[in-house]
Amino acid sequence: MAIPIAMLDCDLLLYGRGHRTLDRFKLDDVTDEYLVSTYGFPRQFICYLVDLLGNNLTRPTQRSRAISPETQILAALGFYTSGSFQTRMGDAIGISQASMSRCVSNVTDALVERASQFIHFPMEKRARQQLKDEFYGLAGLPGVLGVLDCTHVAIKAPNAEDLSYVNCKGVHSLNCMMVCDARGLLLNVETQWPGSLQDNVLLQQSVLNTQFESEMHKDGWLLADSAFFLRTWLMTPLHGPETPAENRYNIAHSATHSVIEQTFQAIRSRFRCLDGTKGTLQYSPEKCSHIILACCVLYNIALEQGLDLCYSPTIGSAEQPEEAYEQMESLDSEAYCTRQELILTHFS
């Protein structure tokens, strides 16, 4: 009786039953140096992910050789950190390119499910005060809960008619808004916005905006650059500072806000699938958004575990669109007064 082709195991067709797979190949058989060079992370980190995601990645199957959680995680890490489904990557762990793709999807979904566990503002009073103290230690700006900015990640064109993902450089992208603390740990990430959306408009439509406008985080403010409008909870730099105090404020603002740019560079350096050097992400906008978010979750986990996430200036330096914007900060008199009081109190 003929076997329906959909029922066939593509790995079995490609490699046969005798092919060596990582289900038979233990992490203990290789060095940390090999794991870091091939998959971007050491053994301890990979084992932590297996414990964290194992239940999500173990599913009932009729296949004779279900792919283990360990193998799925290695496949996904290989893609995230290299940016491509290379044949040698699949060969190294004994699975086909099609299975590599399924593994990336499975691990991405499992990480996205845990995004709120690893990416969030602290709510405890002591932890929030620590946030402000660490930012104050950078350049003397008080009351800072996080630094905010947007970055673009190139994606394939969804279709010829949809221009909403075309950014000001003519590239299809997702515009991703992120907030980090003084260490670079991500506190808020929104990755689903089309590339044509300007940063300030994106913020107006975001969950983050709703939270701060409703005074959920009323004990401090965020810092943003001049692509955003000044608000009572969002401090931006002054244009044409006229006094020594205003100059000192701008210098402190720039030094503090630079943390988010360093964070973007560290993420792109660690996760080459996002940096554009291997081409655009070849998925739907929704799936691309999930891959970006999954990488952000991994970034936070790695940072919390003390891994070195320093970036190389020659990697992950994909050119970002520079947006034209019109300053309207003077229309918000309360925000203007808040910033002036901050300048007079702390920089005079």
UniProtKB/TrEMBL annotation:
Give the keywords, sorted: Cytoplasm, Hydrolase, Metal-binding, Nuclease, Nucleus
Locations listed in the record = Cytoplasm; Nucleus
Q: Enumerate the GO terms in the molecular function aspect.
A: hydrolase activity; metal ion binding; nuclease activity
UniProt main location, coarse:
cytoplasm
The UniProt record lists the DDE Tnp4 domain at 148-300
What this protein needs as a cofactor is: a divalent metal cation
Q: InterPro entries per the record?
A: HARBI1-like, HARBI1_animal, HARBI1_dom
Q: Which GO terms describe its cellular component?
A: cytoplasm; nucleus
What family does the entry list? Belongs to the HARBI1 family.
Q: What does this protein do?
A: Transposase-derived protein that may have nuclease activity. Does not have transposase activity.
PANTHER family, A to Z: NUCLEASE HARBI1-RELATED (PTHR22930:SF253), PTHR22930
Q: What is this protein called?
A: Putative nuclease HARBI1
